[in-house]
Amino acid sequence: MLDLMPNENPFQDPLRFERQVPECVIVIFGANGDLTKRKLLPALYRLAFDRRLAAGFAVVGISRTPMSDDQFRDKMRESVEQFSEDTKLDEEVWSAFARGLYYVAGDIGDAGLYQRLNQKLGAIETERHTGGNVLFYLSTQPSQYAEIAHGIGAAGMGKGNGWRRLVVEKPFGHDLASAKELSNRLHEVFDESDVYRIDHYLGKETVQNILAFRFGNGIFEPLWNRRYINHVQITGAESIGVEGRGAYYQEAGALDDMIQNHLLQVMATVAMEPSASFRANSVRDERSKLLRSIRPMTPDEVRQNAVPGQYGPARIGGQDVPGFRQEPGVDPNSQTNTYAAVTFFVDNWRWAGVPFYVRTGKRLAKRVSEIAIQFNSAPLHLFNQDSGDPGVNLLILRIQPEEGISLKFLSKRPGSGMTLRPVSMDFNYGSSFGERSPSAYETLLLDAIVGDPTLYTRQDMVEASWSVVEPIQNVWRETKSEFPNYPAGSWGPAAADVMLARRGHVWRKP
Ligand code: BG6
Asked: Residue with the nearest Cα to atom 6 of ligand 1?
């Protein structure tokens, strides 16, 4: 949260969304891209629909394609109509919102673009009284981030009569050195406190709820350690392939695309110590400390504790699905990982010796993200068990698509005698709250507008994640893998099962 006095702590505020939202302009670089269309504009429109934006709120879209303000408005209307999953376009709300949409065409490398943007911001400020507050949102090729920040600085827009903030999409660098270098370049124009590195997983309601679950209740935290927890499985599985992003994905791969950022942030949220308060830096300090406690691996350890995979072609539901190497834009001999499974260890007193198994992949059997916390079984089995499964005490934090929490335990089967059977106690968001959850982008955009960086990652956190991912990257880069090693639609390569079997564990099939 913001660094506020405790009684102003927004986490303790039941009307968190009723925070005072300042007037501002969001400048989106990459306004013609997929993210703007699919996520940013639908989220901003929904915030307008819910009356959460200030009256003068405005957006300036920037990309190379020549377009008038009106053409941009029409294009954005199509995006909102197509990609707002649960919000119908309301003509009255839309027309008020659309009046605040503007567009500037230009090349990132051209100083003239920034001059034109500056003039446009001046005109918008006079027209809509936005108070000089500007949020620059970078959703372009990552290689352009530093250049854009410098363009903004050179045109004098890095400072102004209101606040200036910079939101940066992932990937933030492609290894430790490049992440450091990028931070240095951005800091030439923006202070670290004004740089918001977005990780949309942290904005998901179910990920935020991990903190509520752990630190809002008294009953779980005493068990949350190496004495009671046997191991943890974190899964971010997708059933889709690379969806036309073959060229980007070929460079990134699953390890960089999902584990370095989203899944390590989830792991930090599951494993961090309670923070002294819910002020932004307290929470981020604890996440950061946890990330810094993850043990970086030697090359030998990488070979034991990390498994890369790449999907091959398969026939799923009567349809032929291409392998990764057959996807458009992908090298037919590509060594890119579309699956990654890693065993991490956290070197601190709470977690010493507890494996955290983290896996992600494209074209897996099912789209599901969850955290499964496996507790130790009872020290002695006094009863007959229907299931021989010793891992029955399991807590599952379900991130998506089903959102909720389940606790599995043994119960007596009705009838004479004492035979036990696993049962489940379930909490579901939908049925418990019966109200819509804001999308991650709604939450995060609003947080950036009000200046609340709690759910954004900080330089030290990003660097800590690269420090544990880089040794894996290095070994995988030097090793030629036998790809493809899993068929599309399966649960990944057999080597990932072997990795767990070595410690007597088995992947869940959620
Ligand atoms: C993105 C990755 O950051 O997250 C994508 O680049 C991935 O490859 C996506 O598909 C997953 O997000 P979600 O919210 O659908 O789980």
From this structure: 257
Question: How far, in Å, is the centroid of ligand 1 from the Cα of 237?
Answer: 10
Based on the residue annotation, tell me whether 129 is a catalytic residue of this protein: no
Mean pLDDT of 58-76: 97
For residue 241, CA distances in Å to 36, 169, 365 come to 21, 21, 11
* Separation between Cα atoms, residue 143 and residue 271, nearest integer Å: 33
Average pLDDT, the chain: 93
| 243 Cβ contact list (under 8 Å, min separation 6) | none
pLDDT at 13 (0 to 100): 43
Out of 174, 200, 231, 262, pick the active-site residue: 262
How far is CA 455 from each of CA 115, 447, 459, 486, rounded to the nearest angstrom?
32, 8, 13, 35
Q: How far is the CA of 48 from the centre of ligand 1 (A)?
A: 25
Neighbours of 205 (CB within 10 A): 17
Pocket of ligand 1 (CB under 6 A): 170, 238, 257, 369
- In tens, the pLDDT along 113-154 reads 999 999 999 999 999 999 999 999 999 999 999 999 999 999
Residue nearest to atom 5 of ligand 1 (CA): 257
Pocket probe for ligand 1: among 200, 234, 399, 439, the residue whose CB has the most ligand atoms within 8 Å is: 200
**Taking each helix axis from N to C terminus, what angle separates 280-293 and 264-271, rounded to the nearest 10 degrees?**
100
Q: Would you state the torsion angle of the CA atoms of residues 402, 406, 411, 414, taken in this order, to the nearest 10 degrees?
A: -30
Q: Whose CA is nearest to atom 10 of ligand 1?
A: 238
CA separation, residue 196 to residues 202, 204, 411, 435, 479 (Å): 13, 16, 47, 29, 35
The residues facing 167 across adjacent strands are 137, 196
For ligand 1, the distance from its centroid to the CA atom of residue 238, given in whole angstroms, is: 9
Atom of ligand 1 nearest to the CA of 204: 14
Mean pLDDT of 266-290: 95
Phi/psi at 207 (5° precision): -80, -40
pTM, 2 dp: 0.94
pLDDT category at 246 given cuts 50, 70, 90 is confident
* DSSP H or E run through 377: none
**How far is the centre of ligand 1, averaged over its atoms, from the C-alpha of 418 (Å)?**
46
For ligand 1, mutation pick of 170, 249, 257 (most atoms within 8 Å of CB): 257
**Pair of tokens at residue 385:** 């068990």
Q: Average pLDDT in the 42-66 region?
A: 96
Selection from 345, 342, 358 nearest residue 476 by Cα:
342
| Closest among 228, 214, 225, 227 to 375, alpha carbons compared | 228
Mode of pairing for the β-strands spanning 356-361 and 339-344? antiparallel
Q: In testing the pocket of ligand 1, which one of 238, 256, 369, 403 has its CB within 8 Å of the most ligand atoms?
A: 238
- pLDDT tens-digit series, residues 355-366: 999 999 999 999
Distance 492 CA to ligand 1 centre (A): 18
